[in-house]
Amino acid sequence: DSGVTQTPKHLITATGQRVTLRCSPRSGDLSVYWYQQSLDQGLQFLIQYYNGEERAKGNILERFSAQQFPDLHSELNLSSLELGDSALYFCASSPDINYGYTFGSGTRLTVV
Amino acid sequence: AQSVTQLGSHVSVSEGALVLLRCNYSSSVPPYLFWYVQYPNQGLQLLLKYTSAATLVKGINGFEAEFKKSETSFHLTKPSAHMSDAAEYFCALSGGGADGLTFGKGTHLIIQP
Question: What is the pLDDT of residue B52?
Fold first, then answer.
């Protein structure tokens, strides 16, 4: 157990739908990062939050959004889903870049 | 812009042989460099990290990596491969800012009995 908890582990949904992925960071970590892993794109940085505020954006589509709540858990919202959104979505947390990131076990999203 | 290149999408070694996974980077600022391992259906686990201290970094499971600025490299080695080392390995880079890690495409390590 890495200390970063992601739910659900698996999600199957239809095109056009909206889903929410949840992440609880490791205790004490203020930064939360979201990554998408797919066979063709590899690991892509989506977005970072630090203590409730958006810090950096990567290759995140406009159909996707995220937020971090006062208790530091984060949610990634994916809407108008397309087949190409099928991927593993990872959350990671960190107290500081010097420590590297601790990753959760991921949510496997399948869009049918 | 920063980038990470991992040479060899698949590397096969015999059990007990030396493991060498290659990583080259490009960064306009002094980098922080990381190696992660991913086992099937699992998340990424940090193996080791370079954060501008010692250039030879020791990690978990007997792995180590050497930061060579002149060669812009951060290759991962292990003296003797074990069957349990079979996994996907990712090299990653950060410029120390808030832009997240940039990952290489990964190297699948195969251990032959």
Answer: 77
